[in-house]
Amino acid sequence: MKTADLHTHTLYSDGTETPRRVVELAAEAGLSALAITDHDILDGCPEAAAAAAQRGLELIPGLEMSASDAGREVHVLGFFIDADCAPFQQLLADQRTRRVQRIHEMIQQLGQIGLAITPEEVFGHALGQGSVGRPHVAKALLKRGYVSTLKEAFDRYIGNGGPAYIPGSPLHPRTAIQGIREAGGIPVLAHPIYLKDDTLIDQLARDGLAGLEVYHSGHPPEAVQRYERIADRLGLLRTGGSDYHGASKEGVAIGARTIPYDLVEVLKQWKARHPSSSCA
Ligand code: AMP
Ligand code: ZN
Ligand code: FE
Ligand code: FE
User: Fold this and answer.
1) Ligand 1 centroid to residue 89 C-alpha, Å
2) What digits encode the pLDDT tens for the residues 255-274?
3) Residue 75 CA: which ligand is closest?
4) pLDDT by residue (tens digit) across 145-170?
5) Is the full-model pTM beyond 0.85?
6) Which atom of ligand 1 is nearest to the CA of 14?
7) What's the pLDDT band for 279 if we cut at 50, 70, 90?
8) How far, in Å, from the CA of 243 to the mean position of ligand 4?
């Protein structure tokens, strides 16, 4: 059976491998299709597409946008986005600028609780033109010896609600959904289990959400069944993937969660019925 992994990160955000390497790992794992979904950036997709063409694998350009609703972090995946859509690229650039600002705020907050790190130490772990995030801060803390694992950095300091936690993007998920649609993409709610509140899915469906990430490496079987039912009830497409981050997320390999390729066909059919509204 042909399979696909529609949730992976590369060096362009907080993964540790190049797009080319991620494609090679996907080919070795026997996948037919792969989506690269870096945080708030599309720039790793061309390299992945070139590598995929060489390996006979289908590359689906994608991303994972950070947003929040009433203080709750919401991640929206977007698939088959038109990277030439200027207003959408501007929205992503703004997201990344805010990420840089947030890193400075986190460094200040960490300093106040006695954990001195410099911006250079954090940005040194990120790609110059990439999307910087908390895992890069965690690496700086690890290198200084303040923590002994990346997970400990989140558990003790920078995880949601931690003493040096600074909220992520203030963008409303509705804005992310609309932006993805305007750029010809398919907006999908990522890993709904992390929301701990299924009523938000109903609201986002009213806001134009097209799909739900039913299958995810963090979803136990009973959650998968629940999200399958919710997707059916709301008429949402089903997607899924590993949320591979390389060495940034131990124990999650490429293809750790896959979906039947048939679901990729369904995504393409949806895309054909919904041409881009403003960037055609
Ligand atoms: P950011 O986009 O800067 O808010 O960082 C979010 C990323 O941090 C996620 O995509 C994960 O890669 C990572 N992350 C979040 N929570 C944890 C955790 N508890 N342990 C390890 N990594 C985490
Ligand atoms: Zn991440
Ligand atoms: Fe996420
Ligand atoms: Fe992710």
Assistant:
1) 23
2) 999 999 999 999 999 999 99
3) 3
4) 999 999 999 999 999 999 999 999 99
5) yes
6) 12
7) confident
8) 5
Domain chopping of the chain, boundaries? 93-158
**Rounded distance between C-alpha atoms, residue 68 and residue 79, angstroms:** 20
- Torsion, Cα of 13, 14, 17, 20 (10° steps): -20
Q: 93-158 maps to which CATH number? A: 1.10.150.650
Q: With a cut of 90, say whether residue 63 has pLDDT above it.
A: yes
Contact 33, 4 (CB under 8 A): yes
Chain segment 222-235, per-residue pLDDT in tens: 999 999 999 999 99
Between the CA of 114 and the centroid of ligand 4 the distance, in Å, is 30
Q: Residue 234 burial (CB < 10 Å; 0-12/13-18/19+)?
A: middle
> Of 15, 12, 31, which Cα lies nearest the Cα of 23?
31
Which ligand 1 atom is the nearest neighbour of the CA of 248? 12
39 lines ligand 1 (CB under 6 A): yes
